[in-house]
Structure formats: structure tokens, C-alpha cells
UniProtKB/TrEMBL annotation:
SUPFAM superfamilies: P-loop containing nucleoside triphosphate hydrolases
Name under which the protein is recorded: Urea transport system ATP-binding protein
Gene3D superfamilies in the cross-refs: P-loop containing nucleotide triphosphate hydrolases
Matches recorded under Pfam families: ABC_tran, BCA_ABC_TP_C
Cited InterPro entries: AAA+_ATPase, ABC_AA/LPS_Transport, ABC_transporter-like_ATP-bd, ABC_transptr_urea_ATP-bd_UrtD, BCA_ABC_TP_C, P-loop_NTPase
Length: 251
């Protein structure tokens, strides 16, 4: 089996004549947290779309634990083990935090049958473990519709985690969060590091510094640089690409 949870090989897509992602090769090790950085329009979201099957690639391959999942249907890629969290929440507002996690855990179709079926002690323990991981133990019985923006994002992360995906894709996990919520999100991600492979798109450099091990910088659809936070921040090509932008220099 591959030592890499996620690999892209010369992955690309063209929209008409425009090459939004142009031959991107990434190797993300099992348990690694990889941050994707890049200016607006660099191709970060499109790359996530290609990996998760939302957009069909026109060249290259995507490998999950060495298995080719290129251009499978989105639900099949999710089922294979690539979980994605979007910015728009998809929680059940009338259910409690715990019930939301239980619904996500169950493989049985239908919300209400999910709540009625018996759960093993191991399943219940895993629900509590995940709720603890995302920092919502005190809100276990809280109706999800009354949670704050940050808490909703953590609940959604928990709903992904309970399905034990091999790889989690997070698109700007701190968008719209307060500073305190951003700090807590960094703590959650740091707790997952090492056990959970993650690919995270993020603009907030202070947050990136808090969580990043290795960063891949995209520019005009290509990999411009790869390295640690310190390496990336001192990279002349990255600085040149960001010139005039606040993203790296200001943080
Ligand atoms: N379906 C599409 N059709 C045509 N062009 C597209 C399509 N999707 C994305 N693009 C273009 O591809 C380029 C990359 O967009 P993408 O959203 O991936 O960038 P990004 O790095 O995620 O930027 P941001 O940080 O602003 O989200 C942009 O120029 C965008 O307009």
C-alpha cells in the first residue's frame, strides 16, 4: 500500500482555453496536514474540486492510498474515503449536536430510522470521542440550530470525522470566524494532525502559521513552491507572486 494517503499526478483542467489547474503533482503522506496557499484565482478550489470529483479533470490522476480514483463520481470518491467540508453548513438544525453526529455515523438511510436503531457501545463511544475532538462536549445536548457560526463549523467537521474518511478536504475553515473561534479551530486541527490526513485551503497567514507543517503554494494553476512556513515565507518566487497582495507580507 502507498505511504501517501493522497497523490495527484500532473492533474489539470481546462475551461475552454483557460487552464485553471495545470499539471499539479502533490504527495500528501498519511496523517499529514498540507496547507494550500495561493492568491485569488490561483486554482485552489478548483484543485479541491478535481480531487473530490466535483469537477472532471482533463489530464492527470488522483490516487487515494495508491488507488486511482480519478474522475469517479463525487459520491463514489466520498465513499472511497475523501471527505470534504464546504463553507455552507448542512447540519440538521432541529437535532442536537449528538444526534447530528449519530445521523452522520449511521450507514442506514433516513434521519429518523438512524436515530431509532440500536447503537453498539463502541459506536456510542466513538460519537463521544469525536464530539470531544471537535470541542463540543459541553454542547452535546444543544439543538444545532442554536449554535454559533464557529460551533456549526466544528459540528460539521465532527460529522465528517465520524465517517472516518482517509482524507479530509477543508476549504477556508476559518471563514467568517471570530479570532477566538479561529484559535479554537487551530487547536482542533492540531489535535487531528498525525492521525488524520488533511488538505486545507486557507488565506489567514496567522492561522496557517498555527497549523501548518508543509505548505504548497499555487500560482496560476501550478505549484510555485513547497516547504515549511519559514521556507515559504522567505521564498523569493512566492514573495514576487504575492507582490502587491497583503497575503504573506502583511501577516
Ligand atoms: N467552471 C469554471 N469555468 C470557468 N472558469 C473557472 C471555473 N471554475 C474556476 N474557474 C476559474 O479558474 C481560476 C481558478 O479559480 P479557483 O476558484 O480555483 O481559485 P482559488 O485559488 O480557489 O481562488 P479564491 O482564493 O478566490 O477562492 C479562476 O480564474 C476562476 O475564474
Amino acid at each position: 500500500m502507498s505511504v501517501y494517503a493522497l497523490e495527484t499526478e500532473a492533474l489539470g483542467v481546462s475551461f475552454g482555453r483557460f487552464r485553471a489547474v495545470d499539471g499539479v503533482s502533490l504527495k500528501v503522506a498519511k496523517g499529514e496536514l498540507r496547507v494550500l496557499l495561493g492568491a485569488n484565482g490561483a486554482g485552489k478550489t478548483t484543485l479541491m474540486d478535481l480531487i473530490s470529483g466535483r469537477t472532471r479533470s482533463t489530464s492527470g490522476r488522483v490516487l487515494l492510498n495508491g488507488r486511482d480514483v480519478t474522475n469517479l463520481r463525487e459520491y463514489r470518491i466520498a465513499r472511497a474515503g475523501i471527505g470534504r467540508k464546504f463553507q455552507i453548513p448542512s447540519i440538521f438544525t432541529g437535532l442536537t449536536v449528538r444526534q447530528n453526529i449519530e445521523v452522520a455515523q449511521s450507514h442506514h438511510p433516513g434521519v429518523f430510522s438512524n436515530l431509532r436503531i440500536g447503537r453498539s457501545a463502541a459506536d456510542r463511544a466513538r460519537v463521544e470521542e469525536v464530539i470531544d475532538l471537535v470541542g463540543l462536549s459541553d454542547q452535546m445536548k444543544t439543538e444545532a440550530g442554536t449554535l454559533s457560526h464557529g460551533q456549526i463549523q466544528w459540528l460539521e467537521l465532527g460529522m465528517l470525522m465520524i465517517q472516518s474518511p482517509d482524507v479530509i478536504l477543508l476549504d477556508e475553515p476559518t471563514a467568517g470566524m471570530t479570532q477566538a473561534e479561529t484559535g479554537k479551530t487551530a487547536a482542533i486541527i492540531n489535535r487531528l494532525k498525525g492521525n488524520q490526513t488533511m488538505l486545507v485551503v486557507e488565506h489567514d497567514m496567522a492561522f496557517v502559521r498555527d497549523i501548518a507543517e508543509k505548505i504548497t503554494v499555487l500560482h496560476l494553476g501550478r505549484v510555485l513552491a513547497e516547504g515549511t512556513v519559514a521556507e515559504i515565507e522567505s521564498d523569493a518566487a512566492v514573495r514576487a507572486a504575492y507582490l502587491g497582495s497583503q497575503e504573506i507580507s502583511a501577516c
